[in-house]
Amino acid sequence: MRQFLRINLLLSSILLFFSCASYSDGFVEKENAIQSFTPGYLTDFQEHSFKISIEAYGKHFGGILVAKKLDVNHFRFAFLNEFGGKMMDFELINRKMKLNDAIDELKRKIILKMLETDFSLLFSEENEIEKSFSYSDWTILKAKQEIQNKSVYFHLNADENLEKIILAYSKEKAQINLKETENLIPEIEISHGKLPIKIYLHLLSNN
Fold it and tell me: Which N-terminal residues, if any, form the signal peptide (predicted)?
């Protein structure tokens, strides 16, 4: 009986530890010299076209994404299939999705929620910064505004270039990797934690 109680107490302690753990555990907090942050690729963003590739559950989907800035934190997006047919038209206004049109297969709640999250991470300007951390060679900025009750972290390398955007609570829920190119717009890869879904964006035009 005592052994059972000890095991039960140990398991409860482990569960409590992981439930209280934070993504930022291990980071060293430093003076917050940055009050507001906008990713460099959005500085002069007007309108761009991307090749979009989606790998999901062993299947591949491809097409074109057209993104246009209408105002600060207001963007409009059109998904086109490989033949130029429109599959989805939506806006992102202050990180909230406004769906204008979509084929039935893309109107599923889980898909809309995922796209709203992904594009809110990518296309978010004037992010108010709550805390700054250092970790290895990284400077990590934690945004004050959350997305779906989870924190947003911007990872800047030693040259102060943005390389990663992370959405996390105790564990990472979404990650955006940004690879520098000769253009201002980086190569973009979006992953979703343990879900077998990845999205790739490659710039087609530099309007």
Answer: 1-24
Nearest to 166 by CA among 188, 142, 145: 142
Q: What angle do CA 5, 9, 15 make, to 5 degrees?
A: 145
Residue 5 neighbours by CB under 8 Å, 6+ apart: none
Alpha-carbon gap, residue 71 to 58, rounded angstroms: 37
172 versus 153: the higher-pLDDT residue is: 153
**Tokens at 189, concatenated:** 């890869």
Map out the domains of the chain as residue ranges.
24-203
CB 54 within 8 A of CB 197: yes
Helix (H, G, I), strand (E, B) or coil at 41: helix
CATH code of the domain made up of 24-203: 2.50.20
